[in-house]
Design goal:
transmembrane helix; transmembrane; membrane; alpha+beta; 2 domains; single chain; seven-stranded mixed beta sheet; 240 residues
């Protein structure tokens, strides 16, 4: 019995430690609100980088001013290369002039600062003047454009509507050929964290304490019964 209780206590302690470690890591790792992550599959041959196309809006508050030059950094790494290659592209390249009701985040909007593309993975940074959710909430619909080294548009995905979002989140976009989807990875809810911490620090220790107390009481009762049986046996022996 003592062995079973010890094993159970050890297992319960392990669960508490692992759970706390996972929650602690989750709580201590903030989401990136200044980036957009784009994972690509089945992209056209020759793709050097990807761009987010947002639906056009009149009096675009994030749009470049008349005569303002785009100021983003673009780099990519081919499958057989180790180093990133910087691309020098201006307002006259294909993606900068692309407009079919959607236009480039990199070349037509102020917030974009850089994009790095490598082996189907695009990492886009935006300035700290806005958060990623501000852009998606403002424009609503978006697409992804695959571009070559010269800034020509090779292919554009279908459009997806971004739902309104009030939480600090990471935007993970998945482009598969012309198909497009996205998911949000939001910061953990405070209420949920408090509930989990309550379970870890109060409920589970209380259960563990109750089990230990019950085991001690059972052990003491068992020893008393053994002592009583030994006493009765001794008395009966001497009576004989």
């Amino acid at each position: 019995m003592r062995t079973r209780i010890s094993v159970f206590i050890a297992a319960l302690f392990t669960v508490i430690v692992c759970t706390f470690g996972g929650i602690d890591a989750c709580a201590m790792t903030p989401v990136e609100t200044d980036s957009i992550i784009i994972n690509c599959r089945n992209e056209p041959e020759g793709t050097a980088f990807v761009d987010v196309l947002f639906r056009n809006r009149e009096k675009d508050k994030y749009g470049l001013d008349d005569g303002e030059e785009p100021h983003c950094e673009i780099s990519f790494r081919a499958d057989n290369e180790n180093n990133f290659k910087e691309l020098e592209l201006g307002k006259d390249c294909g993606i900068a002039r692309y407009n079919d009701g959607y236009s480039s985040l990199l070349f037509c909007k102020k917030p974009a600062t850089s994009v790095h593309y490598s082996r189907g993975y695009g990492y886009m940074m935006i300035s700290d003047m806005v958060q990623n959710k501000d852009l998606f909430n403002y424009y609503g619909e978006f697409r992804i454009a695959y571009c070559d080294e010269k800034g020509n548009v090779l292919q554009v995905t279908d459009a997806v509507k971004a739902e309104k979002n009030s939480s600090n989140s990471e935007y993970h976009i998945s482009a598969d050929g012309t198909s497009l989807s996205y998911e949000l990875r939001a910061e953990p809810k405070i209420g949920l964290l408090l509930l989990i911490l309550f379970v870890i620090y109060i409920l589970l220790p209380s259960i563990l304490l109750a089990i230990v107390i019950k085991w001690i009481a059972s052990f003491i009762r068992h020893r008393k019964e053994e002592k009583k049986q030994l006493t009765d046996y001794t008395q009966d022996y001497y009576k004989k």
